[in-house]
Amino acid sequence: MPSKAQRPVQGKRRQTASKVRAAALTLFARYGYAAVSMRQIASEVGVQPGALYNHFPTKQDILKDLMLSHMGELLTAWTSAKPHPQTDPLVAFARFHIRYHMERADEVFVSYMELRNLEADNFAAVDAERRRYEAILTGILEDGAANGRYALDDPKVTTRALIAMLTGIATWYRASGTLSRQTVEDYYINLVCRAVSLEPGKTQRENG
Amino acid sequence: MPSKAQRPVQGKRRQTASKVRAAALTLFARYGYAAVSMRQIASEVGVQPGALYNHFPTKQDILKDLMLSHMGELLTAWTSAKPHPQTDPLVAFARFHIRYHMERADEVFVSYMELRNLEADNFAAVDAERRRYEAILTGILEDGAANGRYALDDPKVTTRALIAMLTGIATWYRASGTLSRQTVEDYYINLVCRAVSLEPGKTQRENG
Amino acid sequence: MPSKAQRPVQGKRRQTASKVRAAALTLFARYGYAAVSMRQIASEVGVQPGALYNHFPTKQDILKDLMLSHMGELLTAWTSAKPHPQTDPLVAFARFHIRYHMERADEVFVSYMELRNLEADNFAAVDAERRRYEAILTGILEDGAANGRYALDDPKVTTRALIAMLTGIATWYRASGTLSRQTVEDYYINLVCRAVSLEPGKTQRENG
Amino acid sequence: MPSKAQRPVQGKRRQTASKVRAAALTLFARYGYAAVSMRQIASEVGVQPGALYNHFPTKQDILKDLMLSHMGELLTAWTSAKPHPQTDPLVAFARFHIRYHMERADEVFVSYMELRNLEADNFAAVDAERRRYEAILTGILEDGAANGRYALDDPKVTTRALIAMLTGIATWYRASGTLSRQTVEDYYINLVCRAVSLEPGKTQRENG
DNA sequence: AATGAATGAGTGTTCATTCAT
DNA sequence: TATGAATGAACACTCATTCAT
């Protein structure tokens, strides 16, 4: 049973930090890290600029926090995802990737656009997570290539090509458009499957 | 016969403007438009900041110039490209796109990353060019779909997916790596072909 | 008999105030009043900045407290000093001054350097104490000049000259150097004596 | 014959830089380096804050410039000083020091008070000059002690004592007071002479 | 007595841009 | 065509101080 004496002060701290993250994410996604000022973030949060520094030591730390937690959550989400065991792994991964990226367009956009604005050590940390994530797809492609299920030339090149293709959705898809998420997802799944010569209709694993 | 009365002064003017473009391109690609100052550009050119304003009225105009001329040259290059008439049009386009984008990594990078830093009217101008370019691919896909040569769900969605995939090469390909340009090109062509169920080996048009 | 009912709470209050004084003294001496922040002091004390305000209403009050109590203790120390009655008064004073200032380099340094950072009324209070202290020496010089023991042109000018000379020790003397305190003291006493033509060897009052 | 085509622009540059130095000197002397803002300096100069950076890269550089040029000018002035050859060297040096320091109270004050605000390398540069200057006096004292003209215990300690005494004039002397410069100078000369047992009346070198 | 989030003003410095030369 | 001094606004960040807890 959790303590009932939780101090509201704790809540307030988390709340403000949370608002800062949210405001920064939106602003960075729209205008870019370098073009957003701490004043803009503070004003969005409804606080004076100096107050931001009670929660993040520098502007760079906000960016690092956003990018690292995005990557962390992405990896966690994949780990907890339990696709139907008979679904083809590439299809499972692609569906997961598409859905996650459509739902988090801002995080995705920032994570791809602001890499160059990370200071060296922060970049290294974020890049390591990116590699871990891409390695999942590379592993799936290697397995599928090994057992003849997928046709491909090079798992790493294919990884990059497919990730770029799928992640690109976030740059153009608008929920307000004519295409539903499900439709877009299905079209891209078909592209992915064909790209490795996996029959789109036959995306259930054969149990041998 | 070219005019013999070319004034060297004209040459000098063009030369400096040219250096400005080159410096800005490199710097924007590396650090981003918002993070690069006119002072940095001037210093790279070997000139005082005020001198830049003899060639470009504002910083924004440098960006607009770079992006518009990149799109213009891209369209011109496609128009002048004379692929072998028996080559499949999708393959021809993809090969053209890959080669052009591998050779101009900085232009491509800037053109994709700095769209949000364009002021409204400049964005409109650049975006119109982008649409013209993508329309070429959409047209090819529509034709191919109509005559049953390509399998695809939606030409516009496929256009975006393929463009994202191919353009992504610029973000990871390094000439210093282990893969030759030709190899990368071939791998991507295979991906493109399979993505629309065009037999990679059968990329010559049948003449009917 | 001291009260046995001393409350530890009182002790704690005094303790923290004391730590604040000590931290501020060290920091002001090293970096100067204006260059030291309340945060630095708090961090040195091991407390949050806000807590300082339970002990001193403003940063200025810390400085005033340090300087006024330094002057107070200096005057008290002189009053309680009981030099050998046969010692020449100038020599007694100079020895006292040298010893006191060598032992309290930080207090001395702050008291001489930060006068300009005192607000008007605080300056007046501290300056009054300084005058009281210097008046002691002026009195000694006037007496000695009157009875022909010392040769000097003007007691006030001589006071300032000697005080500057003696206080200057604090700016260069390091206990870690090659000269012992006693040696330095003796050398300066000789300088003082000669400066008023008092035979260094004859520093015992003749009792008439 | 100097060029007549001197550009007034050159004059303007020097003029502003000069005003900055003057304003900074006055302000640093009155309020201390740390307590003076670039805005205050700019406002005193009659310019926007950013303009200061056309002349000094940082605030620290203004301080360095002031202190280094003060020391440089001091050393130059001593080198060019041609005291009467029959004047005792200690007296000549002391007179020079007193006069120079009375005329440049601000420079002197800043140079003694702001040493701790110099960054390490700037401090080293300034301190080296200070040592050079003090070495002049030490040399004079050593010579005089060697030929029995002065009585003293240790040339280095005596140097510090005398310099502190003489430099201290700047902290209290006001031209508006009752004592003339000449009177103060004479009184201090007498103190210096007696401090090394040099008969004040006998300050002409005996030519042997 | 102490915390820690917040304020409002301020810091040194940089910015894109202008303009007399 | 270029310089370089200047502007006026903005930047990231820090300050002394307050106050609810």
TrEMBL record, chains A, B, C, D:
Entries under Gene3D superfamilies matching the protein: Tetracycline Repressor, domain 2 (1.10.357.10)
Name of one Pfam family that matches: TetR_N
Record's keyword annotation contains tRNA-binding: no
Source organism superkingdom: Bacteria
PROSITE patterns in UniProt: HTH_TETR_1, HTH_TETR_2
DNA-binding stretch(es), residue numbering of this chain: 37-56
Presence of the UniProt keyword Membrane in the record: no
Domain HTH tetR-type span(s) in chain numbering: 14-74
Keywords per UniProt: DNA-binding, Transcription, Transcription regulation
Protein name: TetR family transcriptional regulator
Lineage: Bacteria, Pseudomonadati, Pseudomonadota, Alphaproteobacteria, Hyphomicrobiales
